[in-house]
Design brief:
heterodimer; A: alpha/beta; Rossmann fold; CBS domain Like; 6-stranded mixed sheet; 4-stranded antiparallel sheet; 17 helices; B: mainly alpha; MetI-like fold; 13 helices; globular
């Protein structure tokens, strides 16, 4: 069973959302609904399922409803219609007290502009979730200290958030979210406010933490590179509709419509595609012009950029192997040329 | 049901208004002999007709008489409590030797301002100068201070909870805002005179006047301060499962405190203004001296008393401002200066 399940969620902002719902369900566009009724469609029939331990990245431009979606998971926003099921509990049916207990233990959230408490020190900020849970001060400070060390902020624990740089503030936000040891981490454009170098640093740190902790992460971003780097699965939202869900490779190789295609147009494919995806199977491989003596073995999970220089330099053929060392397929210049060419969604069937 | 009411609310208002006009016409003593006259002689279109007079005055007077007869005891009780608090505080401060009072003010400023020497010396000097202007002013200033102090206490007791309730519930805000407008706009004598009827002459109607006049800014700034707290910070608290109480005391109030302090500061200044006006209904204090000077055409004396009021205002203002600044530094510390 999936860890997080979002089923047919609709969210309409305005005075009488229930009255507008049938119109939206019939498939009226966001613009038309706004013109006819003055209501804004936030989410339009969104269904997502996220497995335990994976990172699901939800991507879209601003106004596409991604921040609205993430706030449905811990019910900071109530949907107009639909269900949200987390860990088997239907979040919509929780009473106020149950909801508070649910938020205390099941998930925690990291915010775009950090959402730190300006009147609390770093250690008080990190310990906030534990304080709300009612833990004693010694215990919560101990846990908070270990989390502060985990994000590399030791020495700053008695500073106030405004005394720290943006990157450091977001690390406090991350430590605060991890301190309660929740199963699910919600990250709302967590790295969007940071400058590029610090952002990639934070992404690396998140990946490292994730490889140890194996949390279920629901990550929101408007940056495709970020989503390709972090996501096991990516969902793309446009005007409140989920237009495509898939692995990073699916998104790159088979964009579902023009919107997704515009997104993936400028992506550095060599960084995203893996050998396994671009290789040809041995039975389809025309081996006569290949000098296998000059071949070079790579793992199926390797990214193109790792072996690309090798191919270009000595025109060698790549032999793709699995973790036991058996040959799975081959890659030559031809396959590379095809996979690195920008594909349009209507011709992708041909090349693939 | 509610939806139906919402849809026709404007018509309901229209019917009520028409009813009011009919009642006014019927209860008027100067109406024409018969209604048909209105349609034959259109002279009433020239001047506002005497029969078009909503009988509010009669209603309010009737209500007021019934009200003061029925609930007079309650107001006597309130008046008694306030009077006791007033006279105990005032007598205490007057009995204490004046140098100790000055020293007390200096110490209060010193700790409230976060040990700022400049402010402390300035406030101490101003306090001393009130008596220095005219020794008679010292006891009068203490009377004024006591009235202002008790008035502010009343404002805090009522204003803070109301402000918090307004920030949390838009419906409460919509209901309270017109009341606040009314409290601020209505001329002060309109409530000072009924105050005399309920509480008698002296300090108590002045305290009630202070409450009506000075409470609105405190309520408004409390409400605004809480609503201005960064939405993401509130969401952060909610996402960790903070309940309403934890959110209010742990996040909203501490972050709204600079604004609330500003409200208390405004409240203090307006209280001081009111206590001077209240001298006209027989409240003793510095305002009393101004009035006396005016009545005797003694420009020097009334100016001296006016100056003493200004000094008192400065003392109040400096102490509350300095305390507000100290809080602001604590809740929103200035950015660390980067080494170059």
């Amino acid at each position: 069973m999936a860890k997080i399940e979002v089923k047919n969620v609709y969210k309409i902002f305005g005075t009488d959302p229930i009255d507008v719902l049938p119109q939206v369900k019939e498939g009226a566009t966001k613009e038309k609904v706004l013109e006819d009724t003055g209501h804004t469609v936030g989410l339009d029939n969104v269904s997502i399922s996220v497995e335990e331990g994976e990172t699901f990245v939800c991507m879209g431009l601003s106004g596409s409803g991604k921040s609205t979606l993430i706030r449905h998971l811990n019910r900071l926003i109530d949907p107009t219609a639909g269900e949200v099921i987390v860990n088997g509990t239907n979040v919509m049916q929780l009473k106020e007290k149950e909801l508070i207990e649910f938020r205390k233990h099941e998930m925690s959230m990291v915010f775009q502009r950090f959402g730190l408490f300006p009147h609390k020190t770093v250690i008080q900020n990190v310990a906030y979730g534990l304080e709300i849970q009612g833990k004693e001060i010694e215990e919560r400070n101990k846990i908070a200290m270990s989390q502060i060390e985990a994000v590399g902020l030791q020495g700053f624990e008695y500073q106030y958030p405004s005394q720290l740089s943006g990157g450091m503030q977001q690390r406090v936000g991350l430590a605060r979210a991890l301190a309660t040891n929740p199963g699910i981490l919600l990250m709302d454009e967590a790295f969007s406010a940071l400058d590029p170098l610090i952002r990639s640093d934070m992404q690396k740190q998140l990946l490292e933490l994730q490889s140890e902790l194996k949390k279920t992460i629901f990550f929101i971003t408007h940056d495709l590179d970020e989503s390709l780097k972090l996501g096991d699965h990516i969902g793309i939202l446009n005007h409140g509709r989920l237009v495509q869900v898939g692995t990073p490779e699916d998104i790159i190789m088979k964009p579902a419509d023009d919107y997704v295609e515009a997104f993936v147009k400028d992506v550095n494919r060599a960084k995203v595609l893996r050998a396994r995806t671009v290789m040809v199977k041995p039975d389809k491989f025309n081996g006569k012009d290949v000098k296998l003596s000059e071949s070079y073995k790579v793992d199926g999970d390797a990214f193109i950029e790792e072996f690309l220089p090798k191919v270009l330099q000595d025109r060698s053929t790549i032999v793709v192997v699995d973790n036991k060392g058996d040959t799975m397929g081959y890659i030559t210049e031809k396959e590379l040329a095809i996979s690195l060419t920008k594909t349009s969604h209507n011709e992708s069937a041909k090349t693939f | 049901m509610i939806k139906i009411i919402k849809k026709y609310i404007n018509y309901i208002y229209l019917i009520l208004f028409a009813g009011l006009i009919v009642i006014s016409y019927l209860s008027s003593k100067r109406k024409p002999d018969s209604v048909t006259e209105l349609f034959t002689d259109f002279g009433w279109l020239n001047n506002f007709p005497k029969w078009l007079d909503a009988p509010f005055m009669v209603w309010i007077n009737d209500w007021w008489r019934a009200f003061s007869a029925k609930y007079g005891l309650i107001f006597d009780a309130i008046g008694y409590v306030l009077l006791r608090a007033y006279s105990i505080t005032k007598n205490f401060l007057i009995d204490v030797p004046w140098p100790i009072v000055v020293l007390g003010v200096v110490l209060l400023t010193f700790y409230a301002s976060g040990k700022k020497i400049g402010t402390t010396i300035f406030v101490g000097f101003c306090t001393f100068s009130i008596g220095f202007l005219n020794p008679r002013f010292w006891d009068k200033a203490i009377e004024t201070t006591t009235i202002v102090f008790i008035g502010i206490l009343l404002c805090l007791i009522v204003g803070l909870p109301v402000g918090i309730a307004m920030a949390r519930n838009p419906r409460v805000r919509n209901a309270i805002l017109p009341v606040l407008d009314l409290m601020q706009v209505i001329p002060s004598f309109c409530y000072l005179i009924p105050g005399i009827i309920l509480f008698g002459l002296g300090a108590i109607p002045a305290i009630i006047g202070i409450f009506i006049y000075a409470c609105p800014p405190l309520i408004r700034l409390t409400d605004l301060g809480i609503r201005l707290v960064d939405k993401e910070v509130i969401e952060a608290a909610e996402s960790f499962g903070a309940n309403k109480k934890q959110k209010l005391w742990g996040v909203q109030l501490p972050l709204a405190l600079p604004n609330i302090m500003q409200g208390i500061n405004q409240c203090t200044m307006m209280a001081l203004a009111m206590v001077v006006i209240a001298s006209m209904i027989g409240t003793r204090g510095l305002g009393d001296e101004v009035l006396l000077g005016l009545q005797q055409l003694n420009v020097g004396s009334s100016l001296e008393a006016g100056l003493a009021i200004v000094l008192l205002a400065i003392v109040f203002d400096r102490i509350t401002q300095a305390y507000g600044e100290k809080i602001q530094e604590r809740t929103q510390p200035a950015k660390k200066k980067k080494a170059i």
